[in-house]
Amino acid sequence: MEELTLGTMIAVFEEIFGRALFWVMVAAAVAITAGYLYVLIRDRRVSWRKYLVAQIAMIPGAIAAVLFVQQVTNSGFRDLGGPVDLLVLLGVAAMGAVGAAILVYTVQSLIWRPEEDQALR
């Protein structure tokens, strides 16, 4: 692998996760991101109460992402071979944490409208 291109990265991820699972994950990420942008545009502000709950969801999201990747790739913590593997694992955890926070904030905002958020205070 002499060049790191988008096509190469897609091929690597399809090999790791399988073609169907990879594209399902891509579609889910696009749908959640679109929902998040919709909520931000609709509300025209960030609800800090919802944001706090979303931050709490980051810990289980990070743990779930690491366990998911280890399950899909059929590996475990004993298979970590060096510093690069640890950095990749930390990157997976960070992406899982951020993804969980965005998902939880979006779901909360779709369930409770801004007017209803004011009534909860």
From TrEMBL:
Lineage start: Bacteria, Pseudomonadati, Pseudomonadota, Alphaproteobacteria, Rhodobacterales
Protein name stated in the entry: DUF5368 domain-containing protein
Matching Pfam families: DUF5368
Transmembrane segments: 20-39, 51-69, 89-112
UniProt keyword terms in alphabetical order: Membrane, Transmembrane, Transmembrane helix
